[in-house]
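Usage

Read records sequentially. Each one opens with the input sequence:
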Amino acid sequence: MSIKVRNVTIGEKTLICAPVIAKDEEGILSDCRLIKKAPADIIEWRADYFKDCNNYKNVIKTAKNIREVCGDTPVIFTYRMKDEGGEAGTDKPITIEKYINLIKLVSDIGCIDIIDVQVMSLLKEDINVSEIIGAIHETGALALASNHHFDMTPSDSDMKELFELMHLSGADILKLAVMPKTSADVIRLLAVTDYVSRVYDEPVITMSMGKLGVISRMAGSLTGSSVTFASVKGESAPGQIPVNKLAEIMELL
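and closes with the structure output:
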């Protein structure tokens, strides 16, 4: 199933998303302008890099300005917690309670299209994820369920179980990122992606990180991964390809 978000449709073909990882508002808006000129379909604001991420007033102000700069380009809001590779741009990383408050606050603003939700981190704390995603839906935003493994690639059965849990959360998009140790890990991730993209109605996003997993960032048309992440100014994860180069490769494929 595909989802229409402003000027793009997620789930029809593999789209390119470029992350913004600047630490202050001026840099964030400057990077958004650069991405608008690049062959990227979606912009992701990685708010865990934002030095004022603990200041809700500044988060709201910056989110509104991002919307103004991005126009009709869809925007994902992501605060990545440290347990899944987040930057934690301040000396005081937010607690799980503040994380929940933050993603609810940003969805309430009404100017961000997609809210990233670290489903597994919340489930580990016995938090009702479906309730949080329901609150996001009430604001008109979409929820992207995500899970990241920076140290390994889970077994095939574990990856499938992770997708099932994210699906049951009620999220609109399901994302899994893993780190390969061998080429076989990359191939397993590609095979699982092909499987889950046919099992679930929600668009899925997967990637095998690092240099070894680069092929997974180009293979969405083969496996069914609906979005790939590419760099315009700085990588938010290991192995991201510059957006112009990735766009050329995907065009060839």
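Summary fields computed downstream for this record:
- The chain has a mean pLDDT of 92.
- The longest helix spans residues 183-199.
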